[in-house]
Write a structure and sequence with these properties.
By secondary structure, the chain is an all-beta fold. It contains no helices and eleven strands.
């Protein structure tokens, strides 16, 4: 069994910070790219950031300079450090991982709400 579990979501005021975590568990030999998507009410799901196995990263323009993605390969965990939060960051954040030999998996999502 493979499972991705997100944690760290919550409520913050504009300008605050939040750190999301996503841990993969189960029979996993190797994880290729891992990333974060988000979906706000009435909006399509969009890519926020992703990181490859060698540490290369990519960010949506809307979060560059504010969010940082990182991963701990030994723990099969990816993080999203979110600083200078804005109300427009309010969304359900989903973790995803490309697992070698198994395909792509998704977490259940965690709610991030930023008040003005």
């Amino acid at each position: 069994q493979v499972q991705l579990v997100e944690s760290g979501g919550g409520l913050r005021q504009a300008g605050g910070s939040l750190r999301l975590s996503c841990a993969a568990s189960g029979t996993i030999f190797s994880i290729n790219a891992m990333g974060w998507y988000r979906q706000a009410p009435g909006k399509q799901r969009e890519l926020v950031a992703f990181i490859t196995s060698d540490g290369s990263t990519n960010y949506a323009d809307s979060v560059k300079g504010r969010f940082t993605i990182s991963r701990d390969n030994a723990k099969n965990t990816v993080y999203l450090q979110m600083n200078s939060l804005k109300p427009e960051d309010t969304a359900v954040y989903y973790c995803t991982a490309d697992l070698r030999g198994l395909g792509r998996y998704w977490g259940q999502g965690t709610q991030v709400t930023v008040s003005s």
